[in-house]
Amino acid sequence: MDFPSIHRPSYVEINLNNIKKNIKNIQHHLKNNEDIFAVVKADAYSHGLVEVSRAAIESGVTGLCVATLDEALTLREASIIEPILVLGVTDAKYAPLAAQQNISLTVASKGWLAFTQNENFDGLKVHIKIDSGMGRIGITKREELLEACDILKKDSRFISEGIFTHFATADEPDDTYFQYQLDTFKKITKDLPINFKYKHVANSATTLWRDDSGFNMIRLGIAMYGLNPSGTAIDLPYEIKPAFSLQSEIVFVKKVKPKTKIGYGATYEAPEEEWIATVPIGYADGWLRRMQGFEVLVDGNRCPIVGRVCMDQLMIKLPGPYVPGTKVTLLGQNGDDEVSIQEAADYADTINYEIICSLSSRLPRIYK
Ligand code: PMH
To answer: Domain 244-367: what homologous superfamily?
Structure first.
């Protein structure tokens, strides 16, 4: 359900210019001049599906990747005509809808092709998915792949557009398993009876750090949003800039006496007289309960979140009296300081992807 709370001062701010610059910069560094498909699944990693897709297309990407047919249909409804690939498994009964909307689907097994036998469609573009070691979806055996190719060749309802795989460890310093997957993919796809327009393997990490020569398309996700796919494990080879910040405002301030308790469970007790502010954002917005104790920025000052994060509100300790309406930055720059998405991810013991994807549609997305 998508009903942002716009009469509340909490919002996500998206700098589309940074996304555009990141794409241009990454494109500039491509060694094989691959086509870029921007990965805009999950509401463009929470940045806004349609807005990011338009910005990415303006920056020269060739196509878009989504996770579900619905995400693809939303893009078509927004008059986006570029190629779209659905990366996940789509029920074969929707093959006619996908074909009619010129949406490319993933073929993850020979069996899926059989399921389409009774469906009435024409000109469905497909990409065969090879499971080279991710263990998620895809064909693992050369025999099954050859049979799938055979069906695709004979059945004129299909347009064989691509063949691809996905790496499980391209973001790790040790490249042993990456090489194993790459070799496996090359081996299984050697001398196929179909000449696919696109052979693609690269996610952001592969694009940034690995040699994937021999392929002609990349699926660019997290790096386009300016975040390091490895977290902090591998340094970025060139600069990319985050586009995402999370802002709110103080809506309530009080000076509390020593020993005053704050929040559910009364887990925080003010050791001395303190200024405590309430900020209207909580775990229902995706600002997780485990962010208790993490810091937000007020007027360039780091202020700890005290007491438990509630569903819609949280409390912070101020360095002094600030008035309601004062800006609170939960992610991003404020004054001379910055709370990075990576810092939040490290605190929450997760990855930067999850911090942003968790932020719910109750938070309006505002574009710069
Ligand atoms: N291709 C596929 C098949 C993917 O699943 C993803 C991201 C990408 C490309 C882009 O990866 P990047 O953002 O690292 O560039 N998929 C996921 C996922 O399923 N969980 O986290 C990222």
So the answer is: Lyase, Ornithine Decarboxylase; Chain A, domain 1 (2.40.37.10)
In contact, 225 and 203? CB cutoff 8 Å: no
Coil, helix or strand at residue 342: helix
> Which residue's CA is the nearest one to ligand 1's atom 22?
353
Amino acid (1-letter code) at residue 191? D
State whether CATH 1.10.390.10 applies to domain 31-225: no
The three-class DSSP label of residue 220 is strand
Query: Active-site residue numbers?
Result: 41, 264
**282 CB under 6 A from ligand 1?**
no
Query: In one letter, which amino acid is 141?
Result: K
Residue 134 has a pLDDT of 98
Distance between CA atoms of 281 and 56, rounded to whole angstroms? 30
Atom of ligand 1 nearest to the CA of 207: 15
CB of 64 within 6 A of ligand 1: the answer is no
Residue 151 confidence (pLDDT):
98
Burial class (CB in 10 A: 0-12, 13-18, 19+), 247: buried
Query: Model confidence over 54-110: pLDDT tens digits?
Result: 999 999 999 999 999 999 999 999 999 999 999 999 999 999 999 999 999 999 999
